[in-house]
Amino acid sequence: MSGVGSVDTPGLPLPFLEKGVAQIAFVVQDLDRTVENYYRLFGVGPWHFYTYGKPLVPRMTRHGKPADYTMRIALSYFGDMRVELIEHIAGDTVYEEFIRRHGYGIQHLGVLVDDMEEAIAQARAAGIAMVQDGAGFGPDGDGHYAYLDTEALIGTTIELIERPKGRKTPEKVYPAEEEA
Asked: Can you say whether the dihedral through the CA atoms of 166, 170, 175, 177 is positive or negative?
């Protein structure tokens, strides 16, 4: 197998990449309209909507300092791939920076990690900084995401994702669930 080897492969600086990409994320201008288009054109859904910011995400940083930012997201699956659509609302974020530099489009690829602190340490050891993160959005205070400064190196940002064991109830689901 070429490319990423096993965790035991000597010299592999980022072993968390072995699992591959679990998510693709797009920064969009109008979240509701984009979700409707995905559903109408491709049949992708249902979509679960959340507003990420305080109080849902109690611990947030930007460039290593406490931060306060807000974004609306919608999550679904396109086949086996998790799709995340993000509408930047407020604050200094990787999304606002991406829009300023590139406009709207694919902003990051997400990889799942079992131990966020270990994955961040592995990235740091490889010379890659963590530029934004948020934690505590799961019902049990778990769940953690962290963006790595990889755009200049590989053309996109890598997001490390330690999924929560469960999810809080979404603000809305599209299309609306049929009443029985």
From this structure: positive
